[in-house]
Write a structure and sequence with these properties.
This protein is of the alpha+beta class. It is built from three helices and six strands; from the N terminus they run βααβββββα. The protein has a single domain, classed as Thiol Ester Dehydrase, Chain A.
C-alpha cells in the first residue's frame, strides 16, 4: 500500500528540511492507512487486541523538504506468531528518501498474543 503524505511547515527545521524525529509520524500515518485497508484499528481493538511497538528505526538517504509529497510504501517485512515487522519505504518521485522499520507486538490483556488474521492475510478487495 502506498500513502501520499505532504511535508508541512510544522515538520521542518529552519532550513526547510524535515526534522529527523518527524519521519516516525509519517511511518505511523502510513501504518494506519495500511491497517485501515484491513478493517481499521478500531476493528482490531473491538476484537480485544492491540499493538505495541517493540523496536523501530529509520535510515535516512536524502532530505525531505518543505512542499515535498512523500510516497510511503508500507509492507510486512516479517510476520511472526505474535509480532509483525513493517517496512516503510519513503520516496520523492524515484528518489529514495528514507526506509523505516517498526516491529509491533500484538497484546491482549497486557500479554503477547497471536496476531489476528486481519494483519496476516491479504487485504480485502477494494470496493
Amino acid at each position: 500500500m502506498i500513502s501520499r503524505l505532504p511535508v508541512r511547515p510544522r515538520h521542518c527545521d529552519a532550513q526547510a528540511m524535515m526534522h529527523a524525529s518527524r519521519y516516525y509520524e509519517y511511518i505511523e500515518d502510513a501504518f494506519l492507512d495500511w491497517i485501515g485497508a484491513r478493517g481499521g484499528y478500531e476493528r482490531l481493538r473491538r476484537e480485544g487486541a492491540d499493538l505495541v511497538v517493540k523496536a523501530s528505526g529509520c535510515e535516512h538517504h536524502a532530505p525531505a523538504r518543505l512542499g515535498d509529497v512523500l510516497a510511503v510504501e508500507s509492507a510486512p517485512a516479517r510476520v511472526g506468531t505474535t509480532s509483525i515487522t513493517m517496512r516503510f519505504t519513503m520516496r520523492r518521485g524515484d528518489e529514495l528518501v528514507a526506509v523505516g522499520t517498526v516491529t509491533y507486538v500484538c497484546v491482549r490483556d497486557a500479554r503477547p498474543a497471536p496476531l489476528p488474521p486481519m494483519l496476516t492475510g491479504p487485504p480485502p478487495p477494494a470496493l
